[in-house]
Design goal:
about 160 residues, alpha+beta, 3 helices, 9 strands, globular
């Protein structure tokens, strides 16, 4: 019982810490514009609500899942970056799936809940990335059982620039 209470207290302290970091939310967003992700874009025999790029971001709430499209003009590293707010539970796992164009292949990146919060605390964000070689529209899916609000954005870095 004491250990459980200590975990809850630590989570609440972390949530207060995140809320007290003045300007870090704004620093994370930068000049990007919010996409409400309420459109219908076809990808991989499915429909995604938005196309995120280097000029946009989206918001949501965990637990839950989300998806968006990222357009890749050439082989690139795609970085999906999350900023977390109002964290009340770390959950068990957070997963990001990177699909090649046409969903011909996928890369799964997962982290346990505590690791996500540790990364957020240390770097101010949680990031997962994958190299995608196909040109065109790529479906990105993510899911977490943590309890928090999130902001998600994506960066596309051409592999030739390494």
């Amino acid at each position: 019982m004491f250990q459980r209470n200590a975990q809850v207290a630590a989570m609440l302290l972390f949530a207060v810490f995140l809320g007290a970091c003045g300007g870090s939310r704004e620093d994370f967003i930068g000049p990007r514009v919010k996409d409400t992700c309420d459109a219908s874009w076809p990808v991989c025999s499915r429909v995604a609500g938005c196309i995120l790029g280097t000029e946009s971001y989206a918001e949501g709430r965990f637990p839950g899942r989300g998806q968006f499209i990222v357009q890749v003009p050439e082989a690139a590293t795609v970085k999906v970056r999350f900023y977390l707010e109002d964290v009340t539970s770390s959950g068990e796992e957070t997963v990001v799936l990177f699909h090649e164009e046409g969903c011909r292949a996928r890369t799964r990146q997962a982290a346990d809940g505590r690791a996500v919060l540790d990364t957020m605390e240390k770097f101010g964000e949680f990031t997962r990335e994958a190299d995608l070689t196909g040109v065109g529209d790529h479906l990105i899916e993510f899911e977490s059982d943590m309890q928090a609000r999130y902001i998600v954005k994506v960066d596309v870095l051409p592999l030739r620039n390494r």
